[in-house]
Amino acid sequence: MLFNLILLSVLSVLILLPSICLANTKIDCKIKEQYYDDKERGWYFREKCEKIEKKENEKKKKEEKIDWAKVVDPKYLDTLDAEKFRKLIEKVKDEAVYNPSHEKVLAYMKMQDYMRTKSIKFAYIWRDALLQNPHLDMTVKNPGSIFGAHAKAEIVGDEKDKIMQEMKNTVGVYFFVSGECPYCHKQNKIMDMLQNRYKIAVKSVSNDYCDASFKECSVEPFMFEHFQIKATPTMVAVLRDAHDRPTFQPIGTGIITLDEVVERLVFYYRYHQTGKYPEY
Predict the structure, then answer these.
(1) Spatial separation of the C-alpha atoms in residues 183 and 211, rounded to whole Å
(2) Is there a domain that residue 228 lies in?
(3) Residues 37 and 81 in one domain
(4) Is 10 strand, coil or helix?
(5) How distant, in Å, are the alpha carbons of 79, 80, 94, 121, 238 from that of 116?
(6) Cα angle at 167 between 162 and 173, to 5 degrees?
């Protein structure tokens, strides 16, 4: 009885060998012959695997081989999609670099020229599309030329000055400082310029003591906790939204220029008025 069970198990394994071999040629085709040394052994699984492996290797070699006559033919290149062309030009480049010859290097140059021609055509069509759809052209509001850049800076500057005039009676800035902070004293000069030029109210809030140079200053450590101030100097703007409700907006930490302070005030003033980020 035991012998019959063992025999049945062996036969089951032998029956499965051909299908296993065909399913995974890399492993099963390397099985060494242990029990069958003649043609009577039954299933010729090794021969089948070798035949499959041979076909796969031939197919792989065929795919890897470069047809140098085709790669320089624009008609053939037109039949390729973008992914196939990228793979092909990389393969041609690698071959030209590692095994250089006049034919290979020239083929790579011609493929590059083919790609350049496509790029030029794309650029022209891109320009035509932008001319027909100017709302998609970023250079309309952000010119790239030097003259255009100067013109934009002048226009934006005038707009900022106009908005700052609107803000002077409704916007203020909390200037969080420390009497022991040297950077606060440097930034204080910028805040004085903001007050003098644009009439924006600035209130200094200290966490230790008020230096005489800080205008409208008071010691209020709880304000640091309320606004979660982690460093000095820090500027927090007091703005009003479209419904005239006050809102607090951090606009800078550390030393920042007057232009940066004005730009951020204008930016967040527009944002809180409209609920949308402004486009420049």
Answers:
(1) 13
(2) yes
(3) no
(4) helix
(5) 17, 16, 19, 9, 54
(6) 130
Contact present, 206 and 219 (Cβ < 8 Å): yes
Answer yes or no: do 19 and 96 share one domain: no
Residue 214, token pair as written in the block: 């800080």
Considering the domain architecture, whether residues 259 and 176 belong to the same structural domain is answered as yes
Query: Are 176 and 266 members of one domain?
Result: yes
Per the domain annotation, does 140 fall within a domain?
no
- Indicate whether 186 and 255 sit together in one domain: yes
Do 118 and 198 fall within a single domain? no
Where residue 2 falls among pLDDT bands split at 50, 70, 90?
very low
Domain span holding position 82: 74-122
pLDDT in tens, 231-278: 999 999 999 877 778 899 999 999 999 999 999 999 999 888 888 887
Instruction: Report how many domains make up the chain.
Output: 3
β-strand 217-219 against 234-240: which pairing, if any?
unpaired
Asked if 97 and 108 count as a contact pair (C-beta separation under 8 A), the reply is no
The pTM for the full model equals 0.58
d(CA 143, CA 239): 31
DSSP per-residue codes, 105-144: HHHHHHHHHHHHHHHHHHHHHHHHHHHH-GGG-GGGTS--
DSSP state of 38: S
